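TL;DR need structure tokens for one chain.
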Amino acid sequence: MGHKFEILKDETKTKELRYISFMGNYQRYDFALMQYEEDPNKTVVIHLQKNRFIVVGKEDLNNDNRDVEHILHETAMEADEVRAFLKEIL
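>> reply
TL;DR here they are.
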């Protein structure tokens, strides 16, 4: 009962990964960050507690952009806190 799959891409790379945790006003946040290969101005931010990720650049973190709320499943107040933190470290 073997399955045959056509593998389109299979490569292993070594990446630099930054783990960072902080305590906000509403909760603790644990993130893993790595540079996004496709666009050097963007970073992959992995929300370790919620197993969700977002690809974001510093210019994407304005308050009109609601991706943080939607993708990371945060409330508006929590997302504002995450955006402010990411603006400082990116």
